[in-house]
Amino acid sequence: MFFLKAGALAALGLMGAAMAHPAFAGPAGTNDYGGYDIAGRLMKAERVYGKARGWTVYVAGAKGRFAYCVGETKADGQRVRIGYDGMQWQLAVPVRSRKDWSGTLTVDGDGRPTSGTAVGRWTIAWLQLPELDRLRAGNEAALGIGKADYDFSLAGTAATVTKVDECVKRNAPADLAQGELMPLTPARPAAEPQKPRKAQKAQKPRNNQGQCRRGKPLPFTGLCQAEARKLLRNRQRIRKPAFIAPKGCDWAVNEVRVIDHPYLYLALRCNGTTSRLDYAGGAHRAELSLVTSALRKSNGENPRIDNAEAAIWIYTIDPAKRFRSLMQRSREGLEPGDKPRLCRIYRAPGLRGTFVYGGDPAELAKAGAKSYDAYLDAVPSCGLYSSNGDTAQKYWMPEGDEALFMTISDEAYQDIDPLTLSRVEKSPSGEWTIVR
Question: Model pTM greater than 0.85?
Answer without folding.
Answer: no
